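Translate sequence into structure tokens.
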Amino acid sequence: MDEKIISFQKGDLITPEQAMQLAIAVAYEGAPFVSPNPLVGCTVVDRNHQLLATGYHAKYGADHAEVDALKKLQIDELKNATLYVTLEPCAHEGKTSSCAKYIATLPVKKIVYGLMDPNPLVSGQGAQILTNAGKTAVLYEGSLKSDLEDVCEVFLKNYREKKIFVAAKVASSLDGLIALKSGESKWITAEASREFVHELRSRYDAIVVGRNTVEMDNPSLNIRHKKITKQTQIIVIDPAGTLLRKIQSGSKFKFLEIHDAKNIFFITKEPEAKSEWQQIKFSNLANLNQQLWTKGIRSVFIEGGALTYSSYLSAGLVDRLHLFMAPVIIGAQNGISWSQNFGIAQLEQKLQLKNLKIKEFRPDIYMTGSL
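Result follows.
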């Protein structure tokens, strides 16, 4: 998942791999606002493979990536041009018109698409529309296949499995600790890491947090980013109803003051009869995910604490890990490990991050991969 936008100017000669990499990079620009649609990016090059334009799907209901890119160009620039798009151009009419049908009317010569769209309304049909119009439409088979899966991972999980996508964010010390046993946790990681976390929050439909984390940290759980203004939904795992009863009795917490009641869900085994916040009856995490799916939530972002992380890991429900590791040692004697309630019996059962990406938010190291 390489989100750094490669620096190219219009007219630069670029390779096919660079064109697709650029399409992947620009796709992430739409991450906060496209749900339930996929992230999609597009690069257009001329007959000599010189860069013409890029585009991305900016928000749900807005132009798709191909249209966004093509609208920046004149018809004569498109003669014998090639499009590199991260996902098969759509065939159906919905909030927007069909990208495949639109491209079919233009003097574009070739379309290279990264993934076949799993949506049965599109799958293979977009490419067929282009082929029928005399265009060359080919499925990309280069070295960026895993990155293409990553950029579209929420949408792919939603369509392939009809399940929500679960990401977990962990901020830890070198020895894997997220807090002291006293509950003190501010701050293990640096400001640069914490700023990026707000960008990550914006990419998912809802934030999941455990009851103890709310009580110990009193977090706001909102998105504080200079370039992103967005309301998100909050899911509080509170099986015994301890936190909810405290709130009903008058206890104050920041997130309740910041978020609309309609965007807050309390997950309890025995829902309270009277509450201004939404409640979901809890039995297990898999069932909770199914209930969230029925409410239109397509992705969640777990932000603590240790029991919540461990429970999701034990249930095999974490799809992506976002790990921020600070160059400090806390010590297990008085610390809390983020995975302390998760364990394996044999090393062959260890969880392995796939398509691992690493970057620096100095002095911290950020690692992310799919599970």
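Note: The CA atoms of residues 17 and 187 lie 40 Å apart.
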